[in-house]
Amino acid sequence: MAVGYLRPTKGVVNCQAIYNNIKAEQQHIKNNAEIYAVVKANGYGHGAVKVAEVAKKAGATGFCVSILDEALELREAGFKEPILILGVVDPRYVYHVIKENLSCAAISLEWLEAVLEEWPKEEVGKLAIHVKIDTGMGRLGLRTEEEMKEVLDFLEKHPQFYLEGLFTHFSKADSADESHLKVQQERFSKAIMIFPKDIPYVHTSNSATALWHDNWKSNLIRLGASMYGLNPSGKELKTPYKIEQAMSVITEIVQVKKVPKGEALSYGATYYTSEDEWIGTLPIGYADGFTRDFQGFEVLVDGVRCPIVGRVCMDQCMVKLPKGYPVGTKVVIFGHDRKGNSISFQEAAEYIETINYEIPCVLSERVPLVYVNECD
Ligand SMILES: *Cc1c(COP(=O)(O)O)cnc(C)c1O
């Protein structure tokens, strides 16, 4: 896919913000837990390799990804640190997991047996696994005591599996309502009793658990959202320390025109000018991850909030300007401008009724990432 290097639309990532967000979490930890930076989905759209570099400098001791390809990307980039794959690895690729010294989630007895079936013929060493307990997310992992005992039994018989970790994932650690969290915590406490005491890593903490629940029973924190400066609760809970959104999305006006009153704009003619209006065209559209739901949302032009008028097209959209700005005028789509005005991912998420995580995640490959304040 062609990346839009020659177009003014960019994702600008402030490395110092990521660094500071991790340092702030380190200060907040009370039990010496390690931080694994979660860089799945290309680092939530911020660029996995660069985020991993910055996180390492800030003191992250390992990384979490969701799929094997993401782990291999980090290895190819030269990272020697531990990498935990949180999603389900296809048992056919167990050779690569072992060879690249990766750790992966073990989600069921069935999965372990399938891995055994695919075990490489040559001498490869052990497979490091983190057994996943499904305490109430309903996504991956063992649910019953019986399943846990079967898995332990299996592991005893098959020493080529190295039980490196035991973990679970909380679905609602980011809310003032802690009732479901309590259910999950209770179940995980029971699971811990069933497993051996000497497992190196026991972990439950995503950002929310790290921020608001003292990384409950975790000697490893899987830090995602808060590292990127995204509040996992949206607006519900205040973060105990300040975090800063690391990414801004910027562009420039590519055409400006005065459109007479009563004229239609964009596909479907959903907008008619109510007076003679200054209209600017921006080179960003839904193919860039700037979805059509943003019709009517605002962008920052010269510190002024300007509405997106008419439909967002595949590659472009139009904004109503207060005056005839010159072509080339800088526009902030998300993030802050030099004057301190800002439109956060949170605000954007609320507008399109999603969560802040999703906005940077869906930015497409066509939008090049530019790194500033590189903490060298
Ligand atoms: C994505 C993910 C995380 C990171 O969650 P954040 O809310 O972004 O901190 C942690 N653990 C698992 C299992 C995940 O899938």
Entry summary:
With 376 residues, the protein is an alpha/beta fold. It has helices at 15-28, 40-44, 48-58, 68-76, 94-99, 109-117, 145-157, 179-194, 207-212, 345-351, 358-361; strands at residues 10-14, 34-38, 62-65, 83-85, 103-106, 127-133, 161-168, 201-203, 220-223, 247-252, 255-259, 264-265, 271-272, 277-282, 298-301, 304-309, 317-321, 330-336, 342-343, 369-372.
Tally of domains: 2
Strand content: 15-25%
Number of strands: 20
Largest sheet: 10 strands, mixed
Helix content range of the residues, please? 25-40%
Shape: elongated
CATH superfamily of the largest domain: Alanine racemase
The mean pLDDT is 98
Number of helices: 11
Low-confidence regions:
none
User: Rg, please?
Assistant: 24 Å
Q: Which CATH-level-2 architecture of the largest domain?
A: Alpha-Beta Barrel
> Structural class of the helix and strand makeup?
alpha/beta
The CATH topology annotation of the largest domain reads as: TIM Barrel
- Give a list of the ligands: pyridoxal-5'-phosphate
CATH class of the largest domain: Alpha Beta
Straight-line distance between termini: 30 Å
Catalytic activity: L-alanine = D-alanine
Binding site for substrate: 139, 314
Pathway: Amino-acid biosynthesis; D-alanine biosynthesis; D-alanine from L-alanine: step 1/1
Cofactor: pyridoxal 5'-phosphate
3D structure, described in words:
The protein has 376 residues and is α/β, with parallel strands linked by helices. The chain has 2 domains: 15-228, TIM Barrel, CATH 3.20.20.10; 247-356, Beta Barrel (Lyase, Ornithine Decarboxylase, Chain A, domain 1). The protein is built from 11 helices and 20 strands. The chain has helices at 15-28, 40-44, 48-58, 68-76, 94-99, 109-117, 145-157, 179-194, 207-212, 345-351, 358-361; strands at 10-14, 34-38, 62-65, 83-85, 103-106, 127-133, 161-168, 201-203, 220-223, 247-252, 255-259, 264-265, 271-272, 277-282, 298-301, 304-309, 317-321, 330-336, 342-343, 369-372. The strands form 3 sheets. Strands 1, 10, 11, 14, 15, 16, 17, 18, 19 and 20 form a 10-stranded mixed β-sheet that branches. Strands 8-7-6-5-4-3-2-9 form an 8-stranded parallel β-sheet. A two-stranded antiparallel sheet has the order 12-13. Helix 1 crosses helix 3 (48-58). It is elongated, with a radius of gyration of 24 Å. The mean pLDDT is 98. Bound molecules: pyridoxal-5'-phosphate.
